[in-house]
Specification:
Layout lengths: L3 E6 L3 E8 L10 E9 L1 H11 L5 E7 L3 H10 L3 E7 L4 E7 L5 E4 L8 H14 L6 E6 L8 H11 L4 E6 L5 H7 L3 E2 L3 H8 L9 H8 L5 E5 L5 E5 L2 E6 L11 H14 L4 H15 L10 H8 L3 E4 L1
Parallel strand pairs: 1-4, 1-8, 2-6, 4-5, 8-9, 9-10, 10-11
Antiparallel strand pairs: 2-3, 6-7, 11-12, 12-13, 13-14
Helix pairs in contact: 1-8, 8-9, 9-10
Length: 312
């Protein structure tokens, strides 16, 4: 379907998961195990696409102080990437898994991007686009502290053209912004949908109606609802994908994994219902894995038959 997929990471991270032997307030807690993965929404999407056999090129901006560590982790995962350097260090996001399997996550804000790196980014992205083929560009993740939503929108609009489709997974755009961007696919969770639509009472029960409002701005809407599954809307049609109950190890990256699963199946020419089913299976599988380990097709297949699709 797409001749090239590009993912944009303005605020990548090092996702650190720690397993302490104890969890006592006011006392040092010794860590018995830890894992580090490259992180941030666009990085997660890229890693899962890679693990599902779909090629994508990651383009991002990262702090030079520890960029070699990020590069090493991306190399380990076989990721094709281009990183611009800026002053400072790649942020570390910390997740602590307590002995009773509770998870506590702190996401750092990230570093300001130097003007030189920011100004180089649009040209770098445009050079990567295929002038004749169909391109998909994924814009996902949080903003660096000195980049506004308006500046980010300008970047997206500078990239968009007839043969470039946009996938969007952010938490700071308004509905008017999304209407202007007109993305090919958008993947909010319930909290993000509430912010976009300025509606505090969006639930799994009324998600299909709320997704219809988003579908006026985006061709495909994947509304991820955690344990309630996924609500999907495309024009006047759609479905609910209900997921089985599973033992949760970590919810970090589950939504990114759902988006990657949906895109991977689109790329393979599957039907829209099959794409949604696989997205739900990927998300379900993701929360059972430790840290932010990337879901594979084999792991997702364990849950695929348990996904119940209800068409609307």
């Amino acid at each position: 379907m797409f001749d090239k997929i590009i993912t944009i990471a303005l605020n990548p991270s090092l996702d650190v998961t720690l397993w302490p032997e104890t969890y006592e307030e006011g006392e040092p807690n010794r860590c018995c195990r830890e894992k580090v993965y490259p992180g941030g929404k666009s990085v997660n999407v890229t890693r899962v696409l890679k693990s599902l056999g779909i090629s994508a090129r990651l383009i991002g901006i990262a702090g030079k102080d520890n960029i070699d560590l990020l590069r090493g982790l991306l190399d380990r995962d076989g990721i094709d990437y281009r990183l611009l350097e800026t002053d400072g260090a790649v942020r570390e996001n910390i997740t602590v898994i307590t002995p009773d399997r509770r998870a506590f996550t702190v996401n750092r804000q990230g570093i300001p991007i130097e003007k030189q790196a920011w100004d180089r980014l649009p040209e770098l992205v445009q050079k990567e686009l295929l002038p004749e083929g169909e391109n998909l560009v994924v814009f996902a993740g949080s903003l660096p502290p000195n980049i506004s939503a308006a500046e980010y929108k300008e970047l997206i609009l500078a990239v968009r053209r007839p043969n470039v489709k946009i996938a969007l997974d952010t938490d700071f755009f308004s509905l008017a912004d999304i209407q202007e961007i007109a993305p090919f696919v958008i993947k909010p969770n319930l909290a993000e949908a509430r912010n976009i639509l300025c509606c505090s009472d969006i639930t799994a029960e009324n998600a299909f109606e709320m997704a219809a409002l988003l579908a006026e701005a985006a061709e495909h809407v994947l509304l991820s609802m955690g344990a309630e599954g996924i609500c999907y809307r495309h024009q006047q049609e759609g479905c609910y994908a209900d997921v089985p109950a599973v033992t949760v190890s970590s919810t970090v990256g589950a939504g990114d994994t759902a988006l990657a699963g949906f895109l991977a199946m689109l790329q393979q020419g599957k039907s829209l219902l099959d794409c949604v089913r696989f997205a739900a299976a990927c998300s379900c599988a993701s929360v059972t894995l430790e840290g932010t380990q990337a879901v594979t097709a084999e792991i997702a297949a364990r849950y695929l038959g348990q996904i119940q699709i209800t068409e609307r």
